[in-house]
Amino acid sequence: MKKIVLAYSGGLDTSIIIPWIKENYPGSQIVCICTNVGQDEDWDGMEAKALASGASKLVIEDVREEFARDFLFPMLRAGAVYEGKYLLGTSIARPLQAKHQVDLALKEGADAVAHGCTGKGNDQVRFELTYKALAPHLEVIAPWRTWNIHSREQAIDYAKANGIPLGNISKENIYSRDWNIWHMSHEGGDLESPWNRPQEEMFQLTRSAREAPDREREVVIDFEESVPVSIDGTAMKPVEVLEYLNDVGAENGIGRTDLVETRLVGMKSRGVYETPAGTILYTALRELEMITLDFDTLAMKNQLALKYAELVYAGKWFTHFRESMDAYMAAAARYVSGSVRLALYKGNIIVAGRKSPHSLYLEELASFGESSYDHSDATGFIKLYGLATGVQAIVHGGKRADSGPAKEMREMAGFSEK
């Protein structure tokens, strides 16, 4: 192979892949690409590190706005949550990162693409399904599935043997982390026992509820067709919305999640996530939907949200099915515009108010006081609504009463007296 494009993060795995590829594919050029999806990196020093590891060049692309606009906000609109807890921060980033890797590979005329995903994780599937969808002719190099390095400790030894700078990575600081503008994940180390409580020093973004301010912090989020557009009356771009809510949420201990999830390969995996802005936005949008969506639209959306989450988790972003579901979500969101007021307090999100010009909640109709609702209308409604239930009771219970409610039900159901 003459040229290989590597998805590069500057972390342990992708750093040691560069010398490994040079050993196993002699004479090949390694072009690295790193996408800025909101992680805090030493961008100035990253190129020097990649070149020192043996890469021919490094391309850095700032894709934060695209990430928020075209990936995170559609996922938010869909209400996708994997297994009831995971807000899919790593999952949703991989198709975008793989897309830009493919674009660079095609531009460079590369023969192959490479990634640093392990053979037991989910990311290998997410990257490679995107490769298949966008450039199926490219060869895929996945060293973790073929080399004789089987642990992060061995990877650290390999890096040291090849003179690769490790930064703050050590056998003591063993956590595997992924960070973007949506979340930060933590895996490995003492977290591998689900009985162990996460150590406070592990968290990088959020305060603990104990250390959060002892006062409520109120925010008002405005949505247009399910897209957050302003906070406290100030219009913001997608990235600005996320940065603002990340700061406010982190300060007030919002967004910590500890879960054991089901990986694509079938095993259970324990991860701890910090998702301040995402947690706030999901809560707010859910409240707005409750006053703007009718029963059938909301019910179908809730069903599709489960499938949407599964597709995102599985890396099936560039599929017709996902695009078809987004068409429904866009139509369903037509009237999901309005404002939600939240109070943040020591890890809690308290819903303080919601309003919308498209609200289906009519106070005059729903009021327990005097209203235009005619209570007597419910009598006929319940007779018809309960008809099937009554028929089932008569048939299954063998009831043949000659008078009373049973007789009335029999007559409504068309039963003869024989």
Description:
The chain is of the alpha/beta class and 418 residues long. The protein folds into three domains: 3-67 and 83-170, 3-Layer(aba) Sandwich (Rossmann fold), CATH 3.40.50.620; 179-364, Alpha-Beta Complex (Argininosuccinate synthetase, chain A, domain 2); 374-413, no CATH class. It has helices at 12-24, 43-53, 64-78, 89-108, 123-134, 152-161, 238-251, 276-292, 295-313, 320-332, 363-366, 377-385, 387-397, 404-413; strands at residues 3-7, 29-36, 57-62, 112-114, 139-141, 176-179, 184-187, 217-224, 227-231, 234-235, 256-262, 268-274, 338-345, 348-355. Helix 4 (89-108) crosses helix 5 (123-134). It starts with a strand and ends in a 5-residue tail after the last helix.
**Helix/strand/pairing category:** alpha/beta
Give helix % range: 40-55%
The pLDDT mean sits at 92
- CATH topology type of the largest domain: Argininosuccinate synthetase, chain A, domain 2
Strand order of the largest sheet: 3-2-1-4-5
- Total individual domains: 3
Largest sheet: 5 strands, parallel
CATH H-level name of the largest domain... which superfamily? Argininosuccinate synthetase, chain A, domain 2
**The top level CATH class name of the largest domain:** Alpha Beta
